[in-house]
Amino acid sequence: MGGAARASSVRPTTDRYEVPRHVRTLRVTDAARQSRADVILRAAAHFAALGAPDPSSVRAEHVSSWVAHLERTGHTVETVAQSLSAVSAYFAWHCREHPARRGEDPRTNPARGVRTVHGARCTACSSPAPARADRGSSLKGECAERDSRLPEWSPARYEASLTASAANTRAAYRRDVELFAEWMIAIVPGAVPSATEREHVREYLAALHDAGATSRTVARRIASLRRYFSWAVREGLAASDPTMSVHTPAAKGRLPRPLDADTAAELVSTEDEDAPEWRRARDRAVLEILYGSGLRVSEVCGLTLQGVATDGSTLRVMGKGSKERIVPVSRQAKAAIARWRKVRDEVVSERSGASLFLGARGAQLSRRDVTRLLEQAAERIGLPGGTHPHALRHSFATHLMDNGADTRSIQELLGHSDASTTQRYTHVSKEKLRLAYSESHPRA
Predict the structure, then answer these.
(1) Which of the residues 62, 140, 296, 344 is marked catalytic?
(2) Domain range spanning residue 91?
(3) CA count, 13 A, side-chain hemisphere, 149
(4) Is position 255 within any domain?
(5) pTM for the whole thing?
């Protein structure tokens, strides 16, 4: 969500909104919890200024006024949509916690039905096909309204300049810059790149740290800003680079957390008995490929019918930066793909194209769809804490390493351009050996 002024600057008239109590119920990271609190507190201050000192007095017109204010002040399409979602979730919680008394009209969520000026379902903002997106176009498509936000910062031009990076990387760098720009405008109205000083960058990083951001997140934000201001200097948007001499925190090494082999096998083979055959077949094929071939979730979503070998034994995968590779398919995945292709026509539509995996309406399967089907599978087997798609990729590599595969082969299968990335899995295996030693040797 948009970085902006801290909660401490909000007037005390928001106390009756019980925001701290609400955010404690959220199952998110500390950084996300603080970000949500900031958004809701700023919205509450706006409502209070309009004469709504408590949540029960907020009406739909108050929420609409707040959304219009965000739109007018140049917040990005993503920030406005995310902020509205956070406030709507807050009011839903408050209605549950404080239901109407007997004889009173039932309480309703005042944010329900409120829409942004630029709707979240803008067709121009829909993601283009991955193959096209990785060749220079915006991951979120071309949208004049979205690209017109923060005109002095030119985020669309900056994103377009990152031609050597993958679409997801370009989108992430652009979003980092937009969040910083929104934070700057919140503390210095009308701020532009040329007015950004080193102290602003340092204060922003301190705000991220105070909000609970990890060292990896802070380091990524610095890298994004460095790249942006280097471009801004070349383009004449800034006279100097304010990120010079800004210290980058050492990112703490984080080892992958793979599933054990039995759990992974159970997870990918579970099926929803109540679902239609096409959904069961599709979900099984997606899960088998995630674990059996170690693909990234974006690579699974981008698979095409032509990318499946005639005999079904390999897949042609478009990886990061449009790097293509051929990966083998497990016996179980091969059977699952064949099963899915027999029923794929049940959901095919004019939007399907050559995409291998489709959603209920025929569009290409999205990352969110994959995450959701994996969460459902984890719930079916009672996996504590659930899991995520990349955990299956980690499990694929770790289990190969544990069973004697060499690092170079694993690097090729995963599509890593840098061998040091693959080396993480040797550390995981060493940890496994160390644990076995400590638990088994009498003098450990």
Answers:
(1) 296
(2) 1-121
(3) 24
(4) no
(5) 0.65
